[in-house]
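Query form — protein Lactoylglutathione lyase

QUESTION: What is the three-dimensional structure of this chain?
INPUT:
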Amino acid sequence: MALRYLHTMVRVLDLESSLAFYKLLGLEETRRIENEQGRFTLVFLAPPGQPECPVELTYNWDGDEGLPSDSRHFGHLAYEVDDIYATCAHLEANGVAINRPPRDGRMAFVRSPDNVSIELLQKDGALAPAEPWTSRPNIGHW
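ANSWER: The structure tokens for Lactoylglutathione lyase are given below.
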């Protein structure tokens, strides 16, 4: 039996703000499907050079009223970054809260506009602990 990863799907309430967030992370739009009959839009985004690792944003034109809101079975999306401090500073400068700062120089968590948890991991092991991150507390849930 062969198995091949396809994508991770997350529902979004505001497509434009969600696209802006994921593009801040560095993802690029690879495909878009507008389905007039089903009244939804699917946007696939992936890291540069990694089209085989997409996240699918699903936007229902008429909203998501009546759909289950319990997302406790979904953990998080994870992305490796070249410089966790620079990535977190970039996100924060653009209004993204750093829920779990990279105090250890290795791991941070942020949330998308739709409350999806995103883990950021430092490429090639931890950087030396550095301010302002080492003294920052966690904010909210991550």
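ADDITIONAL NOTE: The chain has two helices and eight strands.
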